[in-house]
């Protein structure tokens, strides 16, 4: 296997460095791509994170996988990219310095924007080797996501893989034009998109669920070495076919009432919004029964801000 002009032999692990652009200080930036091949042939799985530079929880999941050597496979190949958007990671920012969201510019361009060039290099040099992928994300702008996988509807193979990973929630979500997931689908790569936690934060429970789910995923392909134990899961994954965002009707201080993952009834009070002078309190109520899969942790919200994400139909 040859990636980025480096040959990785069976039984070998190499850290390759993807170099695309420098900082404005002329400092070189290298994106480590950690490739581990087993002596026995098998599928190639990509584990990636940091597509949005401020979504640190995903970075921590892939970091733990590498640190624990889960990425050294029994068979096949595992490619780990803990931080894709290294510029955003340095700046604690979702976007690239050009202001673009990399998850909207795929397949990118060799001579385009900085984000587009990164997307182009992933498409050209990494994805041709990949059969399966798990891309780790977190909620943005203080919005905490319950651990969940997102897949396209009516895809039996992805549903089976999601069931193996077994997060608390599976959410059907259509492909977004220009997204990494859409680019993988066009290449025939089966991708699971993991969401959990919030930006600029590391939640240990979310990280554990991401790592354990990945172990179950690898075990299904006989890629997980025998010395790794897998935690038993007692709760069945909840499949969400539709969902709704609940938005703030007024601006003010947000006082949360319900916790992430809670099942609520229609009309149940979810939170209160108050003005800072003690004059008004506005209740936020559930528009329907369902699970709360995203909570806005911001202490201040503006009218129209998304505050809760609630499942509408489950199966």
From TrEMBL:
What molecular function does GO assign, one term? hydrolase activity, acting on carbon-nitrogen (but not peptide) bonds, in linear amides
Highest taxon of the lineage = Bacteria
Q: What region holds the Succinylglutamate desuccinylase/Aspartoacylase catalytic domain?
A: 41-219
Any idea which UniProt keywords this protein has? Hydrolase, Metal-binding, Zinc
Q: Which cofactor does it need?
A: Zn(2+)
User: SUPFAM superfamilies, per this entry?
Assistant: Zn-dependent exopeptidases
CDD domains linked to this entry: M14_ASTE_ASPA-like
Which Pfam families does this entry report, sorted A to Z?
A: AstE_AspA_cat (PF24827)
Query: InterPro entries in the record, alphabetically?
Result: AstE_AspA_cat, N-alpha-Ac-DABA-like, N-alpha-Ac-DABA_deacetylase
Look up keyword Secreted and say if it applies: no
What is the protein's name according to its record?
A: Succinylglutamate desuccinylase/Aspartoacylase catalytic domain-containing protein
Q: What organism does the record attribute this protein to? A: Myroides phaeus
